[in-house]
Amino acid sequence: MLAIQDLTKIYPNGTHALHAFSLDIQNGEVIAVIGGSGCGKSTLLRLLSGLETPNTGSIALRGRILKEPDALVNIVFQEPRLFPWLTVAQNVGFGLKHLPADERSDIISQVLARLGLGGFEDRWPKELSGGQAQRVSLARAIVTKPSVLLLDEPFSALDAMTREDLQSHLIDLWQDLGSTLVLVTHDIEEAVFMADRVIVMRPFPGRIFQDVRIDLPRPRN
Ligand code: ADP
Ligand code: ADP
């Protein structure tokens, strides 16, 4: 479904961030990518999202080579990146502008309610706690039903309770969406808790060290 072939990334300053990274990801799989600082996890996600281009290699989604940011691939970063001049509803609806207004606001309200943010539509980002803002980021990323959702340490800035809450919300939503998730984390427990498969990376240059299948029942709300 997502075919990652031989990706190499060398930044202009000469840093060899990723070397010959290849991975085939099945439809609906949850992949966790773990490894110490500097082993190329964020670089991998930036390449998959089209925010950076590789020096060599290719990324194909259902046989189609991706060369630039694609509407079917969304990314959530460690810190919420909301547009401060837009309300919660406007932030979440950003990728839905092609829909009629009432259909759009129904979809927005549904996804906000699923994430425990019913009634937050007209708030401004600065009126949200960190966990709430991250849930809005997640809502914005899933509302367009992407085939691939990339998550770059999305929970690491949150306190433990908010983190567990959001982890189970995400698994719950993922089960409805059928999206493929690629979750970057440095938390082994989170990786094993959430993923079907854990990719362990090593640095200098960043590459796959282990590819481990996890056979645990999925957490549920
Ligand atoms: P991780 O997310 O695993 O911590 P990164 O992908 O951020 O790793 O970084 C991999 C390597 O590439 C590190 O050595 C880092 O310093 C370097 N790096 C990351 N981004 C850039 C950049 N924009 N320019 C130069 N080097 C970078
Ligand atoms: P950054 O985090 O990148 O520094 P800011 O959050 O400061 O960005 O805001 C980016 C831009 O949005 C700035 O030009 C700022 O003046 C503007 N801005 C921030 N909050 C609001 C708001 N509530 N209404 C309108 N514009 C805003």
Automatic annotation (TrEMBL):
Residues 2-221 form the ABC transporter domain. The keyword Transport applies. SMART domains: AAA. GO terms for molecular function: ATP binding. InterPro entries: AAA+_ATPase, ABC_transporter-like_ATP-bd, ABC_transporter-like_CS, ABC_transporter_ATP-bind, P-loop_NTPase. Keywords: ATP-binding, Nucleotide-binding, Transport. Belongs to the ABC transporter superfamily. This is ABC transporter ATP-binding protein.
